[in-house]
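#structure-requests
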Amino acid sequence: MVKEPSTRNQFLSAQNYVLTKALEIEQDPSTHHHFLEKADIPFVRIGELGRGAYGSVEHVRSTISHRDYARKLIQRRTFGKDKEVLKLFESELAILKRLRHQHIITLIGSYTDSKFVSLIISPVAECNLKEFLSREQFSHGDRSIIRTYFGCLSAALCYLHDNSIRHQDIKPENILIKESHVLLADFGQSLDWSDSQHSTTSGFTLKTPKYCAPEVANYCPRNSSSD
């Protein structure tokens, strides 16, 4: 006669499954995870970092590694209302999985729960470039650091283009600063042209008028040089 598994054994089996998924989020960014219960999500909210058109960004801490990350949240119901948002999210996730550069944010992992789809990103920035440049006073050290940013961002941009990715929305708000480190962020509007022979596109595109290139503003054909 086969005995029914005890409640204790069932609990331990379930715990092992949840813990394994929690650990894998920080170890394997290529796999998307799903958590049925909010209590199973291995991150605790520390505070809010910002809000965008389709979601918010939070400062979170891992309950497994105790490391701090940024978590980008988009409500799942948004995807049902606007398929373009889903398309942009899937594109951003795919692009971030490919990128590894010291001056570009790093994707740690991604997951879905009952209400949200989330990206876990490193590092947690102290501010963005717009906020940094809005300071009333700059120390001598700040001025020295600013001089290095152009080279750092140029290197990151060359890396993107060498990997057939066009950012398409470079602006101070999308450049993060962590200590003296500067990083390109927010790839929600980026274009992966690796399946095409060239990066040239035309027609309507999302843009930030104040910072986009003239050809983008006029909806003319544009390529990676528009970055």
